Amino acid sequence: MNFDFSDEHKMIRKQAKVMLREHASIERVRGVLDSEAQYDTQLWQQMVELGWPAVAIPEQYGGLGMGQLAQCVIAEQLGASLAPTPFASSSYLATELLLLAGSDTQKQHWLPQLAEGAVIGTVAISDGDTPCVYQDGAISGIKLPVADGMAADFALVRAQEVQAEEAENDELVDSWFVVALAPTLRKTVDTLDPTRSAALIQFESTPAERLGASGQAPGLQSQLFDRAAVLLAFEQLGGAGACLQASVAYSMGRYAFSKPIASFQAIKHKLADVFTAIELLRANAMYGAWALAEDAPDLPLAAATARVAGCQAYTLAAAENIQVHGGNGFTWEFDCHLHYRRAAWLDGLIGGEDVWKHKLVDALKTTEQV
Amino acid sequence: MDFNDTAVQAEFRAEVQEWLAANAQRKQAGEPGKMALSDEAKLADAKQWQGKKAAAGWGAIAWPKVLGGRGGTPMEQVIWRQEVAQYDELDDFFTIGLGMCAPALMAFASNEQKAQYLPRLASGQDVWCQLFSEPSAGSDIAALRTTAKRDGDKWRINGQKVWTSGAHFADYGIVLCRTDPTVPKHKGLTLFFIDMKQPGVDARPIKQADGGGHFSEVFFNDAVVSDDQVLGEIGGGWKGCLTVLMNERLAVGNAQPTGFARFHELSKSLQINGKPAIDDGMVRSHMADWYVRYAGLKHTNNRILTALSKGAMPGPEGSIAKLVAAPMNQAINRYAVQLLGQAGVITDPTLARMQAHYQKEFLFSPGVRLAGGTDEVLRNIIAEQVLQMPQESREDKTVPFNELPTGL
C-alpha cells in the first residue's frame, strides 16, 4: 500500500507554497480585487518561469511531461492562496481538451505555446442570448460567461454545427472548435469572484477550426470535466484548508465572555466538522488523482466523488469561516468573503453539486459491488 | 501511488492465505454462519479458534515473541484481518483482551505475572475484560466512583461498573478505581487486575435498547485484591488508562461499518413507482452524500495503511472514522426502513427483507454513536488534539474529587 504522493511531488508542493506565499500574498490578491486587472500578470510570469503550465504537457509537445499528480499538488497550493490567475482555464481545461481531442497538428501548434506561457487558453461553453453556430469555417453567436475570456488568446468553443450533407432536415450537431479570440468583441462580466475574470464574447463569422470529430462535444466534455474535476478538487482542498486555518487562528485570539472563543464547544464542534469534511475531500481527491494519473476505468466515479466532496467541503469551510469571524467576517476588509466567493466560482466552473451527484450515482448504478 | 503489497507483505499475505485455506471455514454468501450461534456456543467456538491460531503462531501477531506473540508489525496485523474477514470465524472475539488488557499487563505487570497470564490470554484459555465506565462516569471517565481501599497488604473494591463487554463470561478484568478522593480526580485513580470469578464480583447482563445483551454491569462488594494486582503506580491509574486507550487507537484497519454497501444493493433491487430506487431523485441525492463519506473513509483508511506500511504512525486523519461512520450508519438504516414503507416496521427475520438487517441496524445504531467515545467527545478530540484548540475551563482539574458537585 503506497497511497501517498511521492517525495518528489511533496517537494513540488513545498516549492509551490513558498513561491505563492511571496507572489500570491493576500495583498497581491486584493490588488486584483480592487483594480480593473484581469489577473496578476507578474504572478503568472512567475508561474510560467517555474514551468507550471508545462507540467502536464508531454515532452514531445514542448512540455515537462511530469503528469497530473504534479499538477494536483500545485492546484492545492493555488487554491489555498486564492491566486488570481487563469491557470485553471488554461491548464485544466484548454490544455487537457487539446490533449484529449486535438489533431497532431493542433497539438503541435498550441501545446508548445501553452507550455512556454506564450498563450493563454480557455473553454467557452455557456451560450448567451444568441447560441453559437458554426458554418463554413466560422462561428457566430455569443458565449457568456467565459472564464478568463479577457485574458485568453484562444478558446475552445462548443458550438452547433450545420451538417451540410444532411441539409434536408437541417440537423445540427454539437462539436468543439478552436478559435483565436483576437478578432472577437469581448467585454468584462462582473461575477461572484472579482479575483477571477470572466467575459462575454461575441463571435461574428469568426474563423474556427474543428477540434475532434463532428458531434463529439458532449462526450468529450464529459471526459474533460472528469479530468478537470479532480484538479479542481485540489484547488477546493487548498481553499477549504486555508479557511479552517483562518477559523482556528481567529478563534484562538478572539475573546468573548472573558475566554478565547476557541475554548467553546459550539466553535470546536463546528470546526471539527469542517476538519472532517476536509479529510474526506483529501482522501477522495487523492483517489481521484490516482485514477486520473492511471487513466483508471473508475475515473468517472472517482472524479464525481472528489467533485461533490470538493464543492461540499469548500462551501462549508468558507461559510463557517465567516460565521466564526462574526461581524468582522462580514466586512470587505477581512478576507473571509474572498473564499466564500471563490468557492461559488469553482462550483460554477464545471457544474455544481447536483450535476455531479447525478454523475456519481450513474456510475454507482453500473458498479457491481462498492 | 499504488495499492499493492510490498514484497515482504505479499509473502506474509500468501502465508496467511495458505494457512487459512487449510484451517478455516470460508464464508457462504447470504448465510449468517457462526454469527447465528448462541452466546455460549460462540464463546466455545471462539476459544477453540483462538487456541488453534495460537498453536500455529497466529494468536497474537503484533505481540513480542518473548510473550508468546509473533513479533509482527501492525501492517501484518491488518493483513491478517483483511484475509480472515473472508472466513466464517469469530476472529475478533478477544480484541479487548488481546488489544487493550494485554498491553496494560505488558506495561505494568511483573515478569512472573506476564508469564502466568499472557500466554493463556493469547491462546484463548482466559477471557479478559476492561472495567472503566460507570453509571455516573461515561464520557467523563475520571469521575468514576468505584473505590479501592487499602486493608493491610490487600485492597477492598466497592462500586459498580457498566457497559463492560463480555464481563459475564470473562475470567479476568482490569479495573480502574478511586484510591484517593481527597485529591483532584485524575490524580486519585489506580489500575488493578482482578479475578472475575472471585467472591464479591457479580456480573449481570444488561438488556440493551435494541433488545440485545452484549454488555454487562458489574457489582463489586468488598472484592479483595492483593497489592501485587496494582498495575502501575498507586494514583497513576489515569496514565495507565491512557496507555490502554492508546492501544485502542492502534487497532486500525478495522473499517467502521457505514451501512453503505447494503444500501447500494437495496437501491438497485427495491422498486419505487415502477423503477429501481436508484433512479429516484431523492434517493440519488442521499446516496451521493453517503458515497462521498463511504469512499472518503475507505481512502482515508488506505492513507493510514500507507503510514503503517512505511513503519510510521498514522496522522490525525484516523480520528474522523467513527465520527463519520456511526451517524451515517444510523441515517442509512433509518432511511432504508422508511423506504420499505409499511413493511419497513417488520422485525421478524423470516418475513422482513434481508432477514430484518435494516431494522436490526436501525435499532443498534444509536449505541455505536456512544460506544468508544461519543460523537461529541470525538469532536472535542479533533478540536483539541488535532486543531490544538484549548480545553474549556475546567474547575474539576484542580478541586479535590470529594468537593466536586455531582448532581447526585
Compact description:
Chain B: Residues 129-222 form the Acyl-CoA oxidase/dehydrogenase middle domain. Chain B: It comes from Ferrimonas pelagia. The complex is a heterodimer of chains A (370) and B (408). Chain A has 370 residues and is α+β, with helices and mostly antiparallel strands.
Could you walk me through the main structural features you see in this protein, from its secondary elements to its overall organization?
- The complex is a heterodimer of chains A (370) and B (408).
- Chain A is an alpha+beta fold and 370 residues long.
- In chain A, 54% of the residues lie in helices and 15% in strands.
- Chain A has three domains: 7-119, Butyryl-Coa Dehydrogenase, subunit A, domain 1; 123-215, Butyryl-CoA Dehydrogenase, subunit A, domain 2 (Beta Barrel); 218-369, Butyryl-CoA Dehydrogenase, subunit A, domain 3 (Up-down Bundle).
- Chain A is built from eleven helices and ten strands.
- In chain A, α1 (7-23) runs parallel beside α4, α4 crosses α7 and α7 runs antiparallel to α10 (336-349).
- The longest helix of chain A is centred in the middle third of the chain and has 37 residues, at 217-253.
- The two termini of chain A are 19 Å apart.
- Chain B has 408 residues and is an alpha+beta fold.
- Chain B folds into three domains: 7-93, Butyryl-Coa Dehydrogenase, subunit A, domain 1; 128-245, Beta Barrel (Butyryl-CoA Dehydrogenase, subunit A, domain 2); 253-386, Up-down Bundle (Butyryl-CoA Dehydrogenase, subunit A, domain 3).
- In chain B, the strands form three sheets. Chain B has a four-stranded mixed beta sheet.
- In chain B, β2 (147-151) and β3 (154-165) form a beta hairpin.
- The longest helix of chain B is centred in the C-terminal third of the chain and has 29 residues, at 281-309.
- The chains are: A alpha+beta (370), B alpha+beta (408).
